[in-house]
Amino acid sequence: MVPHLTTALTGPLLELEKHFLGHATEIERWMRVQWQDHMPPFYASTDLRNSGFKLAPVDLNLFPGGWNNINDVFMPLCVQAAQDAIERICPDARQLLLVPENHTRNQFYLQNVAKLVSVLQLTGLDVRVGSLLPEITAPTTLELANGGSLTLEPLVRTGNRVGLAGFNPCAILLNNDLSGGVPAIFKGLDEQWLIPPLHAGWHMRRKSRHAAAYDRVAREFGEVIGIDPWRINPEYGVCSQINFQERTGEECLAAEVDSLLTRIRAKYKEYEVDETPFVVVKADAGTYGMGVMTVRDASEVVGLNRRQRNKMSVVKEGLQVQEVIIQEGVHTFETVDDAVAEPVVYMMDRFVVGGFYRVHTERGRDENLNAPGMHFKPLAFQTCCSLPDCRQAPDAAPNRFYAYGVVARLALLAASVEIEETEPAEADAA
Amino acid sequence: MVPHLTTALTGPLLELEKHFLGHATEIERWMRVQWQDHMPPFYASTDLRNSGFKLAPVDLNLFPGGWNNINDVFMPLCVQAAQDAIERICPDARQLLLVPENHTRNQFYLQNVAKLVSVLQLTGLDVRVGSLLPEITAPTTLELANGGSLTLEPLVRTGNRVGLAGFNPCAILLNNDLSGGVPAIFKGLDEQWLIPPLHAGWHMRRKSRHAAAYDRVAREFGEVIGIDPWRINPEYGVCSQINFQERTGEECLAAEVDSLLTRIRAKYKEYEVDETPFVVVKADAGTYGMGVMTVRDASEVVGLNRRQRNKMSVVKEGLQVQEVIIQEGVHTFETVDDAVAEPVVYMMDRFVVGGFYRVHTERGRDENLNAPGMHFKPLAFQTCCSLPDCRQAPDAAPNRFYAYGVVARLALLAASVEIEETEPAEADAA
C-alpha cells in the first residue's frame, strides 16, 4: 500500500537516517524534555523537502487543512493526541466551537472540516461549526461529496463571549488563519480559550520569525545528536521594505538572494553536492503557496515583468506584500508514480498523527509544489512516523518515515517557541 | 480481518451499546475529568464478559503480560500512550529497568517482555531487563521463537538503588506481580520510581478491594449516563476466614454463595433473563486463573473432594488461600470460530491501546476461560476501541469495541482509586 518511493541521491540521506536511528533514544528523550518547557501547538502540519543530502521543513502551518487526506488508519492516533491537546488546554471543556475558513464551495476543505469535527467529537466534546460568512444567517447543512454533511451556523457574540445560538463553548478552535486580520467578533474576548492564540494568525505571523526559532532549535538538536544543523535547516534571509508594484526594494532583495546563493554554494562544495543552488522568495506573511517565486540567480529578481510583479505582490485575502523571506531552496528528489513529490506531516499536540505526499506532475524538483494541479497521495504514510525499525535498512519505509517525524517535530517545536516569543503584552492581546 | 463475532442474545446489549453511543460525549468528558483527579496506572489489562444483557470486567491485571498478542497495527497507539505514561511519572528519565516474571522457559511470556521493551524504547528510553532469577549471574541472551531475542541481566543493588552493572535507571517497571512478596532487593529503595507501586503487587492486592472501588465507579458512571450499574458491574461477596485443606469456613462461603445467587436471581427476574445464575469463587489474592471455581448452587462448596480442595487452596508461588471473593458469574455469549470467547482489553496510561479475544474450545459460556487450552485471536481487535461510528449499527464492530473500551476504562479507573486507597503510610512503604 505504500507507493513506490525513490530518492535519486540515496547516499547522504541514508547516512542522515542512520544517524537518526542510531540516536533515537537521545532524540526522543530530548523531545520529551523540550515539551516540558514548551507548550505544543494544538495542531500543525509541515511541508518537508528531501534532497537526499538534506531533509528540511520549508513551511509550518498552524491552521492545517487537509485532514481529509489523512489515512483513516491514523484516526485512533489523531483522537488519542487530540485528547492530550484538549486536556492540556481545557480539560473540563464540554463544548468546542470550530471556526473554519470561508471556503464553502471547496468540497475538499469542507471534508477537512468534517474530519476535524469527527476527531474532536471522539475526544468527548460537543463540537459545532461557526461560520464567519455573512450569508450564513441560520444553520446551513452542506452535503459533502464523500457522503457526509457539515452544518455551518452563524456566530453569536454575547458580551465577552462568542458562541452559537444555544451554544456557549469554553474553547474556540480556529481552522481559519486570520490572513485578513482578527474579525471584530473575536476581539476582546475573555474566559474563552482561543486555539491557537490570535497572534499565531497570519495577520501577525511571519515566516522569518518561525525560521529564526527553527534556526535555534536545529542548532541545539544538531549539537545533541552531532550533526551539522544545515542538514536539516534551510538558510534564509529577509527583505522587509519591498514593494513589487512600485519596484522599490529590488536591490535589497537581489543582494539577499546573492548572499544566500553564495552561502549555499559553499555548503554544496563542502558536501560535494553537484546540483544548482536555488532560493525561494516568499511573502513573509503569505500562505496557500501564493506569492512564491523560485530564483537561481540574483538577476532574476531585478526588473520583474508585470505578470511576475502581480503574482508576488498580493497574497490571500488581497493583502499587499511588503516583507519577503528568501529561503534556501531544497530539491525534492522523491517521486510518486514518476511525479515530483514532497511529504506533508500532520501533528496534534506533540505527536505525529499522519501525513501524505503532495504530488505535482507538472513541476520540477526545485519548484514549489503547493500550486494548482497538485494532488495528494493519502495512502502514502500507510505506516506511521513513530516506529523506526532497527532491523530494517535505513531507507526502509518505517525508517524514512521516522526521519520525517523527527524533522517535522523540530518544526513543531520551533512553532511553539515562535508562539511564546511573539505573545503580545496583555494590553495588546485584548 | 475482524473474526466473525456473534452474540447469541443481541437485544439488550444493543440497547446498552446504543446507550453508550448516544452518550459518548458525556462519557468521554466524564472520563477526562476523572483523570484530572486520579493518576492512571502505567499499564493494565482487563478481562471482559459480554452476556448480552450485561457487559462487565471480571478481572483487572496491573502487571499485564500478553503484549505479544497485541496486533502490530496498534503499536503507534501503544507508543503514544506510553509517552504519556512516562511523561506523567518520570519525564526526565533516560534509563528504565524492566523486571519480568521468572518464566524463562515460556516463549510467549518472553515475547511479551520483548514487545514491551520495544514499545518503551520507542518512547526514547534506554531499556534493559533485570532478572530476579538466581541463575542469571551474567547477561544472558535468549533467542525467541519469533526471531527476536531478549537479554536478561542480573540485578545489582547499590545502596538504596537497584540497577544492572553500569546501568543506574531512574525508573523500574515491574512486569512481575510480586505474588511471592516483595523481593529483598526492592525493599527500602528511594529516589527511584517503582512502577506500579509495590503495594499494587499480589502480595498486598485483593480482588475484593478492586471490586469495592469498581462498585463506586460503576455507580457514579451509571448516574452520569442513566443506566442501572448492575448492567456493567458483577455483584460480589467476600469470605476472609477460609481454609480449604482444614475445611474451615465452608459455611461462611456457602452462605455468601447463596446470598449472591439470590440477588442475581432477582436481577435476572427484573431483566427477564432466562439463564441459570452462577457465581465464581476466586482466591482474593490469586492470579493466572488459578484457584477459580464456578458454582451454580451453594451446596457445591460444601464437602469439596480432595482434588477440588487442592485446586482451590494454592495459587501462584504456592501461596495458601485464606480469603476468597465470590463474584457474580457473567456468561460470555461471544464466540470466535464457534468456540467460547471473551475480550481482553489492554491499556496504557488512560488509553485503550489494543486487545484480543481469549478463546477456549473446551469450555462453556459460564466457565473461566483463563485455563490451559486457551488460545488468543490477536487479529480480533483490528479496529480500535476509541472510534465509535454513529453511522453504523450499534452492533457493528467499531461500536461494540467502543463499548468494550468504555467498560475497560471504568475498570482502569477503579484500579487507580484502589491503588490510591491502599497506599501504605510512609513508614510501612519503606
UniProtKB/TrEMBL annotation, chains A, B:
Keyword Ligase among record annotations: yes
Q: Which Gene3D superfamilies match?
A: Glutamate-cysteine ligase, N-terminal domain
InterPro entries, sorted = GshA, GshA_N
Pfam hit, one: GshA
GO MF terms here are: glutamate-cysteine ligase activity
Listed A to Z, the keywords are: Ligase
Q: Which Enzyme Commission number(s) are on file for it? A: 6.3.2.2
Write down what this protein is called.
Glutamate--cysteine ligase
The species this protein was found in: Aromatoleum toluvorans
